Amino acid sequence: MGGSVKDVQSKGELDNVVRSGALVIVHFWASWCEASKHMDQVFAHLSTDFPHAHFLRVEAEEQPEISEAYSVSAVPYFIFSKDGKTVDTLEGADPSSLANKVAKVAGSIHAGEPAAPASLGMAAGPTILETVKELAKENGSSQVENKVQTGLTSALKKRLQELIDSHPIMLFMKGNPEEPRCGFSRKVVDILKEEKVKFGSFDILLDNEVREGLKKYSNWPTFPQLYCKGELLGGCDIAIAMHESGELKEVFIDHGINPSEPEQAKVAEVGSGKGGISETNGLSASLTSRLASLINTNPVMLFMKGKPDEPKCGFSQKVVEILRQEKVDFDSYDILSDEEVRQGLKVYSNWSSYPQLYIKGELIGGSDIVLEMQKSGELGKVLTEKGIIQKETLEDRLRKLIISSPVMLFMKGTPDAPRCGFSSKVVNALREEGLNFGSFDILTDEEVRQGLKVFSNWPTFPQLYYKGELIGGCDIVLELKSNGELKSTLSE
Fold first, then answer.
1. Which of the residues 42, 151, 154, 339 could staple to 143 if both were Cys, CB 3.0 to 4.6 A apart?
2. Where would I find the Thioredoxin domain in this sequence (predicted)?
3. Is residue 104 part of a domain?
4. Domain range holding 404?
5. Are 76 and 29 spatial neighbours (Cβ–Cβ below 8 Å)?
């Protein structure tokens, strides 16, 4: 092995190494992700410190079959395999945790011992410690030892506070004031413009370190975040409430901030440059028009690798699953089938990777952003805000039909004109007991007819329900009636 990192070219290649039972550490990365590049340096040094382990690297988007097999939906991501089994994982850019997890699985640190940053030198040797320090220096500090596993480096704390203090009113948002990337950010921008105050902004989509760090620093898990003279006021809901009550204006005045002509000052340090659509993007007028048309094909539009039923990468599959969980209609475009669109859209949206999700023509983001928005409930709010209504699934429809009447009979035909003897017998039994009931003719709706068999796990008709619960078919109903239990069962 020789202490080097090897790029994996296929799932079969990785499977063979894992099946050998050797210690395998795999780094899932992406060329566009700065955090991946930093962690790759750490990964390379670790491969030297632990030459008896296999250190493998997988380009997550270029190897969708592997990413899907290991449920990779964000990068950087690491899996640790031993004796043919995955024994640990790590998500995110945390050099200390990576070094210590490698050391533990390799046997240098025992399971009962803490994976503290102080043990980093012992866990991975002086080479990796030096590398982590160098990474920290890039952020303006060499005090990497002060980092705790769930905390922040002194350098990052300093940077966050400097950003917060860079303007009397400072907004951390998705996108920029001219091109907000979520409805909540847009609302706060509109409020500040209505208040006629100058404010600075920072696009947290451009810098994952700031984005994740600020959540911990402020103890506020979502964005936007609005600050006044260095103090957190809150997110969108709080800003709206304060604005509507007049409290926001009072807070600004109390801090010596008076209304003026709106002028949005931008923070100079904005990271990698991902963001809004460029006015002069260098694309031809025809391609620009075509891309705009594609984006607006459907209110919810997903540009992905593959198709919803056959995704060609784990990140695309994740967004498809999220949209299906949100129960919204969406259209998609397979960027692998059209190189002009694939390359052009990167320029048009100034977003370098796929998938890309658009709602009502506005870019929401990729897999990481969509996943975070779903977890926080923000995605559902945005969809509702944009007037996109959840579609009714067959299961939803069946549930509604089943509870549409306390006693509900799914039969062939109608009570007055049954189309099979079993349905006729159940209708007669219910009427003889003097029971009121609703009914549905399954012969008129093949979707309901087939769907209900699966939903109820009952393959035949009629089917009788009481308060949403399946009672049974003809035999059970007649047995209940002959035992004198039918009326009481349906009247509890």
1. 154
2. 1-107
3. yes
4. 395-489
5. yes
**Quick one: 378 and 301 in the same domain?**
yes
List residues bridging with 81 in a β-sheet. Answer: 24, 86
Give tens-digit pLDDT for 212-271: 889 888 878 778 899 999 888 888 878 888 888 888 888 888 788 887 644 443 333 333
Q: What are phi and psi of 413, to 5 degrees?
A: 90, -160
Q: Whole-angstrom Cα distance, residue 281 to residue 284? A: 9
pTM of the model: 0.41
User: Where are any strands of DSSP class E within 276-429?
Assistant: 300-304, 306-307, 310-311, 331-334, 356-359, 362-365, 407-411, 413-414, 417-418
Q: Report the C-alpha gap between 471 and 480 in whole angstroms.
A: 10
Structure tokens at 7: 């790029």
The CATH number for 461's domain is 3.40.30.10
C-alpha distances in Å from residue 411, one per residue of 336, 420, 422: 48, 8, 9
Q: Are 462 and 476 in contact, with CB atoms under 8 Å apart?
A: no
CA 414 to chain centre: 47
Q: Give the integer Cα–Cα distance in Å for 29 and 5.
A: 13
**Residue at which a domain ends, from 108, 123, 144:** 144
Q: Decide the pairing of beta strands 356-359 and 362-365.
A: antiparallel
